[in-house]
Amino acid sequence: GGLATSRLNTNIRETKGWAYGVGSGIPGNRGPISFQIVAPVQTDRTGDSIKAMIADAQAMSTGTKPITAEERDQAINGTVRSLPGSFEKGGALLGALASNALLQRPDDYQAKLTSRLNALTAADLQAKASMLSTSQFSWIIVGDAKLVRPQLEALGLPVEDVKLP
Fold first, then answer.
1. pTM attached to this predicted model
2. Within 13 Å, how many C-alpha atoms sit on residue 87's CB side?
3. How many Å apart are CA 123 and CA 121, to the nearest integer?
4. Where are the alpha helices (DSSP H) in 3-155?
5. What does the alpha-carbon distance between residue 76 and residue 72 come to, in Å, rounded to a whole number?
6. CA-CA distance, 85 to 63, in Å (whole number)?
7. Which pLDDT value is given to residue 123?
């Protein structure tokens, strides 16, 4: 979900033109994990964008539009090709070591990552995507409540206002 060619980005940015970019991913932490979508969209298209993102996630998770071999290849190749650049600075190396310690991964985790990623098939990725449940999504919307609230209510989403100091 983090590539410019991802379904979410292609749909919301390229096809509909409602956002500069859309990305998704799973943060690296222990314990229960979350799937996160970040989509700075036009205020007047907030509801439409959420509806479209839910539809895209459901199509993938239910298998009505499963992950294709081409999508698998783009995602894996993009990740593998970016690995060398992710260790250009000492801080990045230190971050990788800290991440390995936090997640209790072996010290050679990064060295073996390319072969593990390349071994994944579209079916493997689809099996994991089927775990997504849009009924369990929580949406955090930052924007003008009087403009966004009606859009969310029209989708039947519960709305709770939180005002920051």
1. 0.84
2. 10
3. 5
4. 7-9, 46-62, 69-82, 90-102, 109-119, 122-129, 145-154
5. 6
6. 34
7. 95
Alpha-carbon distance 52 to 111, whole Å? 38
Q: What is the pLDDT of residues 6-47, one digit of tens each?
A: 889 899 999 999 998 898 888 877 778 888 899 999 999 999
Give the whole-angstrom CA distance, residue 55 versus residue 52. Answer: 5
Looking at this protein, which amino acid is placed at residue 155?
L
Distance CA 149, CA 165 (A): 20
For the chain, list residues with pLDDT below 50. Answer: none
Which pLDDT score is estimated for 2?
A: 63
Question: In the Cβ-directed half-sphere of 107, how many Cα atoms lie within 13 Å?
Answer: 0
- Cα separation of 135 and 137, whole Å? 6
- At residue 46, what is the residue type? T
